From TrEMBL:
<feature type="domain" description="Ig-like">
    <location>
        <begin position="180"/>
        <end position="261"/>
    </location>
</feature>
<dbReference type="InterPro" id="IPR003599">
    <property type="entry name" value="Ig_sub"/>
</dbReference>
<dbReference type="InterPro" id="IPR003598">
    <property type="entry name" value="Ig_sub2"/>
</dbReference>
<dbReference type="InterPro" id="IPR013783">
    <property type="entry name" value="Ig-like_fold"/>
</dbReference>
<protein>
    <recommendedName>
        <fullName>Ig-like domain-containing protein</fullName>
    </recommendedName>
</protein>
<dbReference type="Pfam" id="PF13895">
    <property type="entry name" value="Ig_2"/>
</dbReference>
<dbReference type="InterPro" id="IPR007110">
    <property type="entry name" value="Ig-like_dom"/>
</dbReference>
<feature type="domain" description="Ig-like">
    <location>
        <begin position="92"/>
        <end position="175"/>
    </location>
</feature>
<dbReference type="InterPro" id="IPR036179">
    <property type="entry name" value="Ig-like_dom_sf"/>
</dbReference>
């Protein structure tokens, strides 16, 4: 991630019957209108250089080294005397670069290892494995991923070498981006939920970068943004099928639907035997008499629910077809 160079200089303690004092030290590569431009004031190196001077020994550190950093670096010290001297330091770098800079699954990606070397260098490109060791990927100077995959994500570096020595580049991270996959909806608590209790639905997906989420109930949008849809107190109006969509810049996916069951709370029941009128869904009127099966409207906790009622002697069995999943035996009482 960094490269460094150093310089040791000497100067006379006294010159022209005057003590020499070092006023300023700095490194530069560029000269504008005869003036040496301090690297710290050079926009190409903004925030990437660090100087250190101990007596007459000065060093330069360059962070996040780039291929464009391979050039001649000069050191200058300025004294309280007119004029001045500088010495030269040439920094050679080995750099691994990736093109394009943003890697998307399925796209073509090129790695390039470059170095200043004479005679010409041979190149090896490595991937850092789980044991933090380099695993050889290619001996080419410019290997190509024709269709890069998520499994290719990782840390890479290259080494350049000739008969005179070798240099290793700083490592780079390849982070392969991809659209959402494997979308699904989970409900907590699982199973049917009684009215008034909280319920949380969570949409999960595998995506890079992280996805944004859209929630649907019966295919109609009910919420945007978060992967979590939370209901503090569930009611009969929340019963239905829920699904979600996960989306980022590189794609989207839709989950299958999950059905949320809501159990209604029954506050009171009155069943009347004999010859009595019951209101049908259609608004018609009929009598129980000797019917063995009938669909009717029953007012339960101030909500209308469609029930199937079958009669057997002095008991009635309720099986809920809509709004709630609830069954049970209830006394059939004369009023």
């Amino acid at each position: 991630l960094l490269n460094s160079g150093s310089c040791k200089y000497i100067y006379p303690v006294i010159y022209g019957n005057k003590y020499i004092v070092i006023v300023k030290t700095f490194w530069f590569t560029k000269v504008i209108n005869g003036d040496d431009v301090d690297l710290k004031n050079n926009s190409d190196y903004s925030g990437r250089v660090e100087y250190s001077c101990i007596k007459t020994f000065c060093s330069l550190k360059i962070f996040n080294v780039r291929q464009t950093d391979s050039k001649e670096y000069r050191f200058r010290f300025i004294t309280n005397q007119q004029g001045g001297k500088y010495t030269d330091l040439q920094v050679k770098t080995t750099v691994l670069s990736v093109t394009p800079s943003e890697t998307v699954e399925g796209s073509k990606v090129t790695l390039t290892c470059s170095s200043d070397a004479n005679p010409a260098a041979k190149y090896n490109i490595y991937r850092v494995n789980e044991d933090q060791h380099g695993q050889l990927v290619s001996t080419e100077i410019q290997p190509v991923f024709s269709s890069i995959q998520v499994s290719d994500s990782g840390r890479y570096y290259c080494a350049a070498g000739n008969d005179l020595g070798s240099r290793t580049s700083p490592s780079i991270d390849i982070n392969v981006k991809y659209g959402p996959k494997n979308c699904s909806v989970s409900v907590k608590p699982s199973g049917a939920v009684e009215e008034g209790n909280p319920v949380t639905l969570t949409c999960t997906s595998d995506a890079n970068p992280a996805a944004n989420y859209t929630w649907y109930k019966e295919n109609k949008i009910i919420a945007n943004g978060s992967e979590v849809f939370h209901v503090l107190a569930v009611g009969s109006e929340h019963r239905g099928s829920y699904s979600c969509k996960a989306q980022n810049l590189h794609g989207e996916c839709n989950s299958s639907s999950r059905f949320l069951d809501v159990l209604c709370k029954f506050s009171s029941f009155i069943f009347i035997s004999g010859c009595i009128s019951i209101s049908f869904i259609s608004g018609l009127w009929s009598q129980l008499q000797n019917h063995s099966f009938i669909e009717c409207v029953l007012l339960i906790a101030n909500n209308f629910h469609l029930l199937s009622i079958s009669f057997a002697q002095q008991q009635v069995k309720l099986i809920v077809n809509q709004c709630c999943f609830l069954s049970g035996q209830f006394d059939f009482t004369e009023v």
